[in-house]
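Write out this protein's structure.
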Amino acid sequence: MPTQSTPLALTAGDPSGIGPEIALQAWLLRERFAVPAFYLLSDPALVETRARLLGLRVDIKVVTPGEALNTFGSALPVVPLDNAFLDQPGEPDTVNAAGTIEAIERAVTDVTSGKAAAVVTCPIAKKPLYDAGFGYPGHTEFLAELCRGAGPAPLPVMMLAHEAFRVVPLTIHIPLADVPRTITPKLLADTIRITAKDLQKRFGIARPSIAVTGLNPHAGEDGSIGREEVEIIRPTINALAQEGLNVSGPYSADTLFYPPHWQHHDAVVAMYHDQALIPIKTLAFDAGVNVTLG
């Protein structure tokens, strides 16, 4: 097993989904895949019930974060939430929103206080959270708010990664009709800068190469199929290149994601959710990891 001084904090996610199974299977496969020690922030009763339902033999132990490292080798450590979960697999319910949100908040607090090394999130169901009054588009924006401290919230940048293939959607969970007016020089420049900085700092790439897609078919055909590339995207890329960043584009998205093309770059910044996520989910559906930059 990896040597650790602090465990990872795994959030419950939506208990009606696959979050409990992810936690149970990760613990069962801990030796085979050298899984770092973690604790699950959840409702212990639900975890035990789900293990029985799935026919999984897992010892579960209620712990504090400080007890997780010593427990992990022999039992799945579960740090109990104040909010209990309604156990109904496959049927999301707003009653579970409080516990889902609590798990994320407590995981972030555990990291910032030094009790945990990092946050790993199980999947959430957004609609029951929205129906319960959750005011953020998703995990990424909520994590940014929780990390803001006394200043403004940092810009959260979502990256999907599998080995050398990394994609960053500039706009994320918004209607497609809102994408063109959301693309601004500032948003694009800030996203590229954050991507480059974290590729250097967290991935060890000395001078990352970043490719940028266009918004329109064929990257706008020099303005004949839309003006965003001419008026916003290309000028921003040129300005960043003058700053010294290794960034290029805009490229037509229908050819950039051909492997011999994207393999020349360390990351691709795409203009909207599906433009970025369809390629990586096609090539690495079960292996891609969502990483929050910034």
